[in-house]
Amino acid sequence: MNLDEILRRRIDRHHLGRARAGDVVAAARRIGGLHAQVASSALASATLRLTAAPELDDALYRRRSLVRTWAARGTLHLLPAADLPLWVAAMSTRTRETTGSWLKYHGVTEAQMRDIIAAVPDVLGGTPLTREELADAIVTATGHEELHEPLRQGFGAILKPLAFRGLLCSGPPRGRHVTFVAPRAWLGDWLPVPTEEAVDQLVLRHLDAYGPADAAEFARWFDLKPALAKKSFARLADRLRAVGDEGFLPVDAPDGGGEDTVLLLPAFDPYVVGSLRRLDRVSSGPKSAVSRPQGWISPTLVVNGRIEGVWELADGHPVVTPFQPLPAAVRCALPEGAVVR
């Protein structure tokens, strides 16, 4: 399988080719979650993979078939609610957010973090609490008045270890305010999933959508300890097949790619996020144009799986900045109203 075939295959497996996902839950499961740091990008990424725009609020807060929480790389994602036990089992292996320099940077001690983790099951249930209400409840339960500021900061860093343990996820917004709920009260209780089983399942799903890849690439994408990724690949040896020097695919994963595709992917689209470590091969332009400061991932022009430019909206129309001159066929395949610089 050459690189062109690999990229076309990834486009197909991401439901960005002819075969779209049956629903938003299936799309989120296939690609390891919809990146949800920017709500509009999550909706755009989901819509591209479906035949019609999904009602994300309905899936998140009424049917509760999706859940919004911190997952891979400690980033907000929309995940299938039924898969949360898998993610919790794998994410709970993280230790960075409970020890050392990370805590010092965020103004919390190890003892305070332990107290927060111990207090949350007693103060958070199925009734949504705003960030401020949750902070007040934790401070009251722990007696740590000095935690008010760290718990209220906008990016929610101190709340991530709680999400990784399955103690917290997003509830429905209250006006402009985000809220939080306890997943087991909000979604229903679940039996713990063994960690190794969870990691293995997520490895197989990742390879199906983003592969071929190796243990190091999965560890980087997930932000998992490399040793845990290596052990998982070893356990899965009889369920994987090597693809040249590119890495591995599940033995039952389909080969090859589909038809030509010309796509304008939104900022933070999972296809692009999953390609960041390989931009020297996947993109014809500079990495700095795609992966920008402060973790911003640009909207991109993707042709047959290759990142061939970036774009932005101007007066309601996409303005495309290609990395190199575009063939006439690609220009013709762009959405109506698109402008090429």
Structural summary, described in words:
The chain is of the alpha+beta class and 341 residues long. It has 18 helices and 13 strands. The chain starts with a helix and ends with a strand. α13 (215-222) packs across α14 (226-235). The model has no long low-confidence stretch (mean pLDDT 95). It has three domains: 3-187, no CATH class; 195-250, Arc Repressor Mutant, subunit A (Orthogonal Bundle); 262-340, no CATH class. The chain has a five-stranded mixed β-sheet. Strands 1-3-2 form a three-stranded antiparallel β-sheet. It holds the Pfam family AlkZ-like. This is Winged helix DNA-binding domain-containing protein.
| Number of helical regions | 18
Give Rg in angstroms: 21 Å
Q: What is the count of distinct domains?
A: 3
Report the sheet-strand fraction.
Answer: 15-25%
Mean pLDDT: 95
Strand order of the largest sheet: 9-10-11-12-13
Our measurement of the CA-to-CA distance between the termini, rounded to an integer number of angstroms, reads 34 Å
Unreliable parts = none
Main beta sheet: strand number and arrangement?
A: 5 strands, mixed
Secondary structural class: alpha+beta
Number of strands: 13
Percent of residues in helices: 40-55%
Broad shape: globular
